[in-house]
Design a protein that fits this description.
By secondary structure, the protein is of the alpha/beta class. The chain has nine helices and seven strands.
């Protein structure tokens, strides 16, 4: 996927998020992100992509930025009002932040629509401080929605944005492990079947609790929480061979005194 195709796919995702199914996903992700980010402390937090979701709404960090490929009318109003700090990044593969400067990064549906998802993760690892935290949102291919998307590509009737390359949870964990980003918690949600109307999605709302209990890994959307681990370094000096010195045996002074007495 080149940069032009990635830009088109991001636009397609923006339109899909305005549909009833997209609103259903946004509601679940917003609630889960609010619960996660409220307990993450630091100074600098960055959300990359998908401005329809305010991933840092519950964050207590003083500095919060929204990185996007372009400014929408809504973003311009937020920037003018000062309610959100927006940093325009022309390319997510080259983030405009210094190395080791960010405490929290949120990637809502960025990797699956990026031209080079590995490079995006490398940039994220670069700007995160040691013990910095990363939250990734994505569509789960091992779900009813993933099966529907696979069948839709055959009959040319996609349910999700067609340009997305959905990443499975085990594959994503392998990518994170290579970059020393240790996965701490995973969350799954949106267990309703792939319905296009709000009425049908509400009818299957009872599946949320059942899905979390009986088939937790089959949710349509997943959320991964990872921490940047930096191994400690200890300087090890050369192994000097210290030989134990033999202590000299002291000569008793009484012998000399005893000899002098005998001579007298």
């Amino acid at each position: 996927m080149d940069n032009a195709a990635s830009e088109k796919s991001i636009i397609a995702l923006d339109r899909w998020l305005q549909t009833p199914a997209g609103a259903y996903v946004r509601a679940w992700e917003q609630a889960r992100l609010d619960a996660l980010t409220a307990d993450i402390f630091g100074f600098n937090a960055v959300q990359i992509g998908v401005p329809q979701i305010d991933a840092l709404a519950a964050s207590r960090m003083p500095n919060k930025w929204q990185a996007a490929t372009r400014l929408s009318r809504r973003d311009e109003l937020l920037l003018a009002s000062g309610s959100r700090q927006i940093a325009v990044a022309l390319d997510f593969e080259e983030l405009p932040f210094a190395s080791l400067s960010v405490d929290l990064i949120v990637l809502p549906h960025v990797l699956e629509f990026a031209a080079e998802p590995h490079q995006v993760l490398r940039e994220v690892e670069r700007v995160l401080i040691p013990e910095g935290q990363l939250i990734i949102c994505g569509f789960n291919p091992a779900s009813l929605w993933g099966v529907r998307q696979g069948l839709g590509r055959i009959v040319r009737s996609d349910f999700l944005p067609s340009a997305g390359e959905f990443i499975s949870m085990p594959r994503l964990k392998d990518w994170l492990k290579l970059l020393n980003l240790g996965e701490t918690r995973s969350h799954f949600g949106c267990y309703a079947p792939p319905c296009r109307t709000s009425a049908w999605l509400e009818r299957f709302s009872m599946l949320e609790n059942a899905g979390e209990r009986w088939w937790p890994y089959l949710g349509a959307v997943y959320m991964v929480h990872a921490i940047k681990r930096v191994k400690g370094m200890r300087i090890i000096g050369p192994g000097w061979n210290k030989r134990s010195q033999k202590s000299t045996q002291a000569v008793p002074a009484t012998n000399r005194k005893h000899r002098s007495i005998q001579e007298d």
